[in-house]
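Run: sequence + flavin-adenine dinucleotide -> complex structure.
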Amino acid sequence: MKMQNFTMHHHLACLLLFSGPLLAFAMNTPENFLQCLSLHSENATSISKLVYTPINSSYSSVLDITIQNLRFLTPSAPKPLLIVTPLHVSHIQAAIICSRQYGVQMRIRSGGHDYEGLSYLSKVPFVIVDLVNLRSIAVDVEDETAWVQSGATVGELYYRIAEKSKTLGFPAGVCPTVGVGGHFSGGGYGTMLRKYGLAIDNVIDAQLVDAQGRLLDRESMGEDLFWAIRGGGGGSFGVVVSWKVKLVPVPSTVTVFTLRRTLEQHATKLVHQWQLIGNELPNDLFMRVILQSYNSGPNGTRTMQASFNTLYLGGVNALLEVTRSSFPDLNVTRQDCTEMSWIESILYFAGFPIGEPLEVLLNRSSNTKLFFKHKSDYVKEPIPMSGLEGMWERFFEEDEGVAQMIWNHYGGKMAEISESALPFPHRAGVLYKIQHITAWTDGGNEVASKHVSWIRSFYSYMARYVSKSPREAYINYRDIDIGTNNMKGDTDYKRASAWGKKYFKNNFDRLVRVKTAVDPGNFFQHEQSIPPFSF
Ligand SMILES: Cc1cc2nc3c(=O)[nH]c(=O)nc-3n(C[C@H](O)[C@H](O)[C@H](O)COP(=O)(O)OP(=O)(O)OC[C@H]3O[C@@H](n4cnc5c(N)ncnc54)[C@H](O)[C@@H]3O)c2cc1C
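>> structure
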C-alpha cells in the first residue's frame, strides 16, 4: 500500500513538473494564482489579505523587513511574483498546490537570516511563503516541553520560556532575531551547546507540510524524514510549520564575563592556550573567542584583540575556581564577572546593556543590518603560534573593523552524540568551530567585491589548519562558494555532493535517499537543497 502511494506521488510530481513552464507564463497575472489559492484554502475569504503582489503598497516593506544581509537588499535583486503570509496550515498547503500548478518555484522564509538570501531570492520565477504570522509558542512547564511555530524567533522562544519559569531554558542561537524555521533546520547552536548540544538535539516532534500538501507529524512522517529535517538544512523536504522541543534545566543564577586582550597583552599566547583547554572544561562553561583588529595608537598601529566572551551555568565562586585551575593565565577576577538570570545572559550575549528590558527579545527586526559574507571551518588540531601570527598579518591587510572571527569550543555534549544520529556530523574530534566574518556598513559592488575577495583569500590561507577531506562547514553559515546545485531542474548528485559532503559528510547520501522518497519531483529546491536521485 505504501509503495503504491509512493509511485502515485512520483507520477504526479513528474506530470506537474513537465506542465510547469507553460503555466508559468500565465503566472504573469497573479490574479490566477490568487484564485487558485482561494480555491485551495479553508478560509477562502481571508487569503487575499495575506498575499502581497508588486502592485500592493506593502509589498516592499513585507519583503525587506527580515532581509538580514544588505548585499541582497538592492533594487536589482530578483523579486518574488508574490508573497504569501499564511495564517493557517491550509494556506501553506494551497501555496504548494498552486506553485506546482503554475510551475513557479517556492521559497520558504521564517526569520530571513540566510547568509546567501536563499529564502527570498531565486533566479527563476518564484513566490515566497513567509511564516511571519505563524509564530505562536506554547510552553508546558509541567511537561518541560514547548511547541514553537517556525515563524517565531529564538528571542521570542526564550522570552516565552522565561515568562513561565526561571529554571528552564533552551539551547539555541545567540542572536535573538534568528528565525526558528531555518535555524532548527540547520542545527542551531548557542551558549549552552557544550551542556545540551544543539537545538535539534532537543527537538522531539514536528509538523511539516510535504510536497503533496499533506500535513505530517513525527509519527506520520516516519523516522527517516524526521531525522532529515533536524539538521539537513531548510528548504529541501517541506515546510516545517512547528517544532516540539524539550526544555532544559538552567540554574537560577548564571555568571558572565568578557575579557579583552590585545597582542601587547599576550593575546596570541592566550588564544593558543584557549585551543588546548576546550576538552577539559566543564560542560557548564562556554567561552568563545571573538577576534578582530583595530588601530591601537595615535599613529594608527594595528593590533589584534581577543575577547573571551563567557557564560557559566552557575555562580561566580564556582566559575573562578574553574578559570583558576584550567586557564590561570587569563587571570579572571571577581570584578570581571556579573551574576544574572539565564534570560538576562541571553540579552548580554546579544549585546544589550545590562538592565535592558527583556521585551527587546520580542523585536523581530534587528537594527544592526550589515553587508556581509561569512564562512565557517572546523578545527581538529590546535593551530601553532606561527599560524596565528599569519592570521593576524592577513587581518591587518583588511580595513579596520571589517573582519572578525568567532571561535567556539565543541566537546562536552557535542562529542557524545554520534555523527549519524542526526544529519549534523560535526561532533567528536572537533576542537572548535570558526566563523569567518567580513561585514561592512556601506558601499556598492566594488567595496563588496574587495571584502569578499579578502575573505576568500583568508579562507584559502586557513585550509592548512582546519578539517580536510572533506573541509567541513556549518550549513547554517550558508556559503555558496563551496558549491551549488545545477538550477536548471536536472539534478546532479555528483555536483551536489561537492557541497553536501562538507555540510553533512556521509549523512549526505541518506539525505538524498529521504529526499528521493518524499519529494522525487524536486519541488522544494534551491541552490543548496538536497537533490533527489535523477528520475
Ligand atoms: C545575525 C545572525 C546571527 C546568527 N547567529 C546564529 C547563532 O548564534 N547560532 C546559529 O546556529 N546560527 C546563527 N545564525 C545563522 C542562522 O542559524 C541561519 O541563518 C538560519 O538558517 C536562519 O534561520 P531563519 O529562519 O532566520 O532564516 P531563513 O532565511 O528564513 O531560512 C533559512 C533557510 O531555511 C529555509 N527555511 C526557513 N524556514 C523554513 C521552514 N519553516 N521549513 C523549511 N525550511 C525553511 C529557507 O528556505 C532557507 O533555505 C545567525 C545568522 C545571523 C544573520
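>> summary
DSSP finds 17 helices and 18 strands in the chain. Residues 68, 107-115, 118-119, 131, 150, 173-175, 178-179, 181-183, 185-190, 234-235, 239-240, 476, 526 surround flavin-adenine dinucleotide (CB under 6 Å).
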